[in-house]
TrEMBL record:
It is an enzyme of class 2 (transferase). It comes from the Bacteria. Its EC number is 2.7.4.6. It catalyses: a ribonucleoside 5'-diphosphate + ATP = a ribonucleoside 5'-triphosphate + ADP; a 2'-deoxyribonucleoside 5'-diphosphate + ATP = a 2'-deoxyribonucleoside 5'-triphosphate + ADP. Major role in the synthesis of nucleoside triphosphates other than ATP. The ATP gamma phosphate is transferred to the NDP beta phosphate via a ping-pong mechanism, using a phosphorylated active-site intermediate. Its main location: cytoplasm. This is Nucleoside diphosphate kinase. It comes from Sphingomonas piscis.
Amino acid sequence: MATERTFSIIKPDATRRNLTGAVTKMLEDGGLRVVASKRIHMTREQAEGFYGVHRERPFFNDLCTFMTSGPVVVQVLEGENAVARNREIMGATNPENADEGTIRKVHAESIEANSVHGSDSLENAKIEIDYFFKPEEIVG
């Protein structure tokens, strides 16, 4: 198994309910280590750039509005097979389909307000990490 880095966002629905620590604990208890973390209020421009791949999808505007509705916590996570491990810990996008004990099963409010985002591949993890972090901010 390879040590990898992946990207995570604790979304506005979770930060609004003061779940940053609870979500981070679930990630750490699942074997991932936080090597960079910062709380930001994403601008509309940042949200549109980050989610640009979805620009033509009908949910794009609502997604950007949601992601700018309050603070988020962007994180770089490190661990064995971090991308896959993070996705396991998060659970299915729709919390109704998420496994028991996953972040989304425990904390998500809905399929839209599902508490967390995680990279879906090593390639996207690098792109997403570089979008929010300078190399010197990652201190693992």
